[in-house]
Structure formats: structure tokens, C-alpha cells
Amino acid sequence: MLRPGSPESAGLDPDELRRLVHDVRALPEGPHPWCAGAVVLAGRGSVIAVEEATGWAVRYAGSGGSTAPGGSTDTTPVDLPPADRVPMRVGTPFDLASLTKLCTTVAAVQQLERGALALDAPVARYAPECTGAAAHGVTVRQLLTHTSGLRPELPLYELPDVRARLRALWAEVPSGEVGAYAYSDLNMLLLQQVLQRVTGRCLDLLIRDGITRPLGMTATGFGPCPGAAATEDQRRPWAKADRGMLRGEVHDENAWALGGVAGHAGLFGTARDLAVLCRTLLNGGAYGTARILGPDHVRLMLTAPGLGFGVDQAWFMGELAGRGAAGHTGFTGTSLVLDPATDTFLVLLANTVHPRRQPPDNGPRVRAATTLARAVAAGPSPGTARRPSGPAGH
Question: Do 83 and 122 fall within a single domain?
Fold first, then answer.
């Protein structure tokens, strides 16, 4: 099981890990910070060698919005008084955004392992109400590999009620080539429908009873989560809905419109809990006395092209990519990478959308992953150094 330790005890170079901590501490600084605050956790084997928080869980009152002379809108972030800000802590929960997809994937692979699902079976076998996917023969595998041809998203939040939103989802037909890769939130929303029909249980219960509870991930679950890091001051025109400053309510508009529990978004969790998930998968599906999957099904999930997980995606994995690293990112600023080849894991959680979403910048993720990769290359083999003295950065 995971334990804090020195970089040397994990076979990681301490100088590279100090560089990792330094770079993350700089992310909330300067006139154009990447995020309001962040938590980074990195390790190898069972050792957490870095666990560091920086910046603010809540820094801003809003994103401006006043009308300036000439009719332009001033969206300069409005800082809270220092006494009203909330510091980031290593145990701060985050809106995990699309990292939710990883838990939905694990829940689906558990059903594959039990024989309740077949990868190449059509979605219509399990959820005939999904008529759009049924008409085009979309399969479970195509949902898990983003090869269904479905468009990236559907504005469900614009429809009047949950029933109308579900009807629109069920009727949605592929707009692209079935079999070609095109990342889509709709894949995991339809997979949620399949899982709920197959098991007769809601997704939140499947994830709780099949993943988070047995692994002891007590800080992970669907919202509301009042103590979470703040996300966005959601107002039009930059947001898709007018909801004000969000903290502890799901950021994703479609997940919100579906009641907060969705296959593509809605989970809140901490860096330590995500590290437990990484360790479980690196250990073939077991953590301590708990086992949530067998090694063969973990391998199926993490082997290119991957099921639910992205594999060797250098655009956010940096130099960890290339040997079979797997992971995912989330729109709110979240990401994780696990590398079976070196038994390393990296969790970087940030509230990059607080107080307002910005153009994507994966540079900090790439630098963090590359620094960890170089720490492995420069470090000694695990077990050859002294006993742990504590994570880097503490």
C-alpha cells in the first residue's frame, strides 16, 4: 500500500523531484497564472515521493463582467480579500471532470470480467432505448475507444428536463465515421446507460461499491462536495449556462443537467485517492487486501489503444509517453498518468478554470510528466537507497 518516502527510496532522483515541486509552485504565480492552485503527487512503486499543495482552493470572487466604456466587457478576475481566500491543501477535493471517465471505464471492465458485457456486442443488446447508436451498430468497444462516430458533445443542458435530455441522448446518431477515433463525452454517457441496464443499479452506486469503497477512496464520490476547490464563475457568453461561481457543484453543464451523476463527469476526489487508483492498476487490479479487477483485464484496459484510458499521449504525458503509459485529463485542470514500464505515477490537480475557462495549455502537464520521467532515468534502482525520510517538498 502507498506510504510517504524519500525520492531515493523510490528510485527517483531528488534533484529532478525538487524541480517538479518548484515548477508546480510557480503555476499560481505571475500576472497570468495557469491556475489558482494545484496539488501534485508523484511516486514509484508503493512510495509517494512528492505530495505538495500550492496556491488557493478559492482565490476569486468572480470574473469581472462589468461593462467598460465603449461597450466592452471587463473580465479581469476579481480577487477575494486575503482573509477570505481558502488555501489549497494536499487533501483538497477537486472536481475531477473527465477523470470520471476512468471510473466509468473500470466499472464497465468489471462487467466484462464477469461476463455481463461483451466488448464487441452492439449497444442495442443491452440498452435498446439508445436507438441512434443501435441504428448504426455501435458496439461497447467503440464507446470505450471513442470510435463510435458520435460528436464530441450534445447541448443537453438546453433542454427543459431530464427526460427530454435522455431522449435526445438515446436518439443521437453518429455524425462521423464509425470506427474512426473522435473523442466524445457521449460515449461515456451511453456507456452509463448500458451499465445501468445491465446491472439494474445507478452509476454512482456501481463506482462506490465496486471501486472507491473497496479501495478506501473515501474522499471520492459524486457531488455535491462543499469543501472542493472552486471552479468557474459560470456566466454567458463564456460559459454555457448562467450558474455563478461554482464550488462543490459539478462544473460540466451536461453532468449538471443530468443531476450530477454522469459517465463522463461529476466525480470529486483528492490526489491521494487518485494515487490509490493508479497504484491499484499498476499492481494488476489489487490494493492491499482488495481486488477490483484481475491482471488480464487491467492489461486489456491499459494496452494501446486503451479502453477509456489514453495510452502514450505525449501531448500531456511528455517523456513518460512511449513505453505504454496510460492516463487522462479533465477540463477543470485535472490529470493523471501511470507508467507500468517504470512503475511510476503522477497526479496533477489544478483549478485552471477558476474563475474563468482559458484556452487550453498543457505545457505544465508535459513539464511535470517529463520531469518525473527524467527522475526515473537519473535515479537509482528502488530499494538500493536509505530508508524513507519524507516526500520531496515537505
Answer: no
